[in-house]
Design a protein that fits this description.
mainly alpha, 14 helices, single chain
Amino acid sequence: MKTIILRTIFSVLFLCVLLFIAVKTVNIPELISLLQGVSMNHLITLCAISFTISLIKSWRFFILLKNNNIPISFWKNVTTFIAGHAATPLPAGEAVRGILLHKATGIRLFKTSSPIVTQAYLDLSSAAFLAFLGSLYYDVLVVPIFIIFALIAATTVVLIYKPLLEKMLSSLPDKNIFNTFSSRMKNMQKGVRSNLIQKEKMRPNKIMVETFAMALITNILGGVLIKLSAQPFNVDIDIFRSIFIYSSSVVIQGLTTVLPGGLGFTEGAMTGIFVLSKVELSKAIAITVLFRSVTLIFSILIGLIFFLIFHSKFFLKHKK
């Protein structure tokens, strides 16, 4: 808990530093003028794409729930999954989604961990794959993205090959912090193997093919979102570079998931990638602000609406 609080404080401070730098280096009235130039129709289009991405992710989550024999209708899954967006600012956002799923189905919390962990793994691994390919093609951030991709690839091997993980964990000291880490890694391995790997064959199953393909589709739609976010500012970014930027943002946010919505790091990294793509700083910040508004703020608002409509009554009744 202390670590989460410290990292959250650091994230907020980092965001404040970015805002300070932006104030000192960017013409704020110009930035506000740029953002005011975004039409309502364009903003609605961006929000619609963002919501479509959430629907595809909820469909993928439904496939994983069914594979784990969790009884839930498709619509109930959608309302639960999107309501979980309301917890995005919390460091334990995925845990909150697990609680909502527990309340909606009555199943034990530990049983929800497998699809939740697998969902997060699919998001991160698919984004890392596309970001790695993009870094090679555009020759941008090749070394850091390669390191991240290599770490995720190595983690995949560990998660698939059970004896390797057991050997690695057995070498850790018998301390509470390491015991907690070992428990989490074992649960993660169990979830990934049961959902994505054919038993005793060490190769992807049908669920893996379907869900990974859906993850790639969400990244492509995210690229479309980036491209459309740049249009109001007369910045022309090709779709492949847009997919690279979006995938990189997913990786960054995934690696800083303990922080509230990846605040600070995601915005700073996205702005930096835009600048490396020869976009003016003021326009790079404007694109980032618009993009984060429709992927973070809009998602939180929709999540709150779904939570209030479909889940708040249960919590209020349970509280009484």
